[in-house]
């Protein structure tokens, strides 16, 4: 069946370092991927997306990499800040439905 | 744009009571999704609507759960009767499906069934 899973449930990084959060997806038919950030008590917020015809996309301090060969997605956060502490979810879109991973908790150490 | 609006933010009820969660999607969006989030199962899709029509309700756990979308600006998720295992955060999200656009989430309803 379809599943989206994260390799690391928790991640701690020093402020100023770069963070990398990984995600594996199982469905080759998925054509659109999104990373969401969820802070405590809030709904998931869009960070960055990428379509399957791309392998890299950059935003402000964030980069998403897509490796379709191994069905792997990663989110890179440059110069991680305390405000980046949150749970990060990857989501894959197939047939207009989004399937979410279980999330990775990122803690930034000042 | 006010974003996706959900109410109530918190709901505490007793087992057996009816619970109704409400959602107002972003104006112009034609798809609406209800998700449930728990520590054990993460974000689960319960049901989604396109142009006010339920497309896939396979995620609705039991007949106790029902959802409606009477118009493009309002949807409800009802649980009757509620049980303690229904305790979770329920999120509503909307998107413009035809452009394959991202989901925008509401702030969620924290439901506690005692």
Outline the fold blueprint.
The complex is a heterodimer of chains A (110) and B (114).
Chain A: E1 4-5, E2 10-14, E3 19-25, E4 32-38, E5 45-51, E6 56-58, E7 62-67, E8 72-77, E9 86-94, E10 97-100, E11 104-109
Parallel strand pairs in A: 2-11
Antiparallel strand pairs in A: 1-3, 3-8, 4-5, 4-9, 6-7, 7-8, 9-10, 9-11
Chain B: E1 5-7, E2 10-13, E3 19-24, E4 31-38, E5 42-50, E6 53-56, E7 65-71, E8 74-79, E9 88-95, E10 104-105, E11 109-113
Parallel strand pairs in B: 2-11
Antiparallel strand pairs in B: 1-3, 3-8, 4-5, 4-9, 5-6, 7-8, 9-10, 9-11
Describe the structure.
Chain A is mostly beta strands and 110 residues long. Chain A is 0% helix and 56% strand. Chain A has strands spanning 4-5, 10-14, 19-25, 32-38, 45-51, 56-58, 62-67, 72-77, 86-94, 97-100, 104-109. In chain A, strands 2, 4, 5, 9, 10 and 11 form a 6-stranded mixed beta sheet that branches. A 5-stranded antiparallel beta sheet of chain A has the order 1-3-8-7-6, with no helix packed on it. In chain A, strand 6 and strand 7 (62-67) form a beta hairpin. Chain A is globular and about 40 Å long. Chain A starts with a strand and ends with a strand. The model of chain A has no long low-confidence stretch (mean pLDDT 89). Chain B is mostly beta strands and 114 residues long. Chain B is built from no helices and 11 strands. In chain B, strands 2, 4, 5, 6, 9, 10 and 11 form a 7-stranded mixed beta sheet that branches. Chain B has a 4-stranded antiparallel beta sheet with strand order 1-3-8-7, with no helix packed on it. The N and C termini of chain B lie far apart (36 Å). The model of chain B has no long low-confidence stretch (mean pLDDT 93). Chain A binds chain B through residues 32, 34, 36, 41-46, 49, 89, 91, 93, 96-103, and chain B through 4, 31, 33, 35, 42-43, 45, 48, 50, 56, 91, 93, 97, 100, 102-108.
